[in-house]
Amino acid sequence: MGAKMNYCIDKFGNQELSKLLTPTGELIVQVIGIENARKLFGSFGGAYFDFPKRKWNCDSFSKLSNAIGLEAARALCNHFSGEKLYIPRENILLTRVRHLRFVSDVKKAIMKGSSLTSAIKSVSISHQISDRHGWDIWKKFNTAVDIINNIH
Questions:
Q1: Hey, which residues does 30 pair with through a beta bridge?
Q2: Which of 27, 127, 145, 147: CA 20 to 30 A from 16?
């Protein structure tokens, strides 16, 4: 069951996710990763953004780096240098994927012998969320991971 579950979540995260994202959203995820893309979509989703041409001291770069971090901001500016790009609102989808991955990681820890309480605590730390939020995710999405596994 463990290998199948990991495969399905990874498949959902890597292949199925790209089918659900807009082409721009998919490209952004490829350039800066899911977590940084989620931050970008949350901060600038639904609006156009002017990417500077390798000028790291301008206002737009400062706003971008404050939202997603310096390294991710540089990667996006290098990729979209000088372009005005519509940033899609993909935050809800990416949050759901993050939650499903959290549940999958909790189940992996349990399969390795951790108690549910211990698994949620350790996985919450690794996902940089509070254990209270981890419990909320577990309660809401635990069965969703099983549903995805049964589809594949």
A1: none
A2: 127
Block residue for tokens 């609006």 = 47
- CB atoms inside a 10 Å sphere around CB 35: 16
Report the distance separating Cα 65 and Cα 75, nearest Å. Answer: 10
pTM tops 0.70: no
Angle at 10 between CA 80 and CA 139, to 5 degrees: 110
Cα–Cα distance between 24 and 18 in angstroms, integer? 10
Is the torsion defined by CA of 10, 140, 107, 38 positive or negative?
positive
**How large is the C-alpha radius of gyration of the chain?**
17
User: How far are the Cα atoms of 6, 12, 50, 120, 150 from residue 101, in angstroms, in the given order?
Assistant: 9, 10, 32, 12, 16
Closest CA to 103 of 128, 137, 63: 137
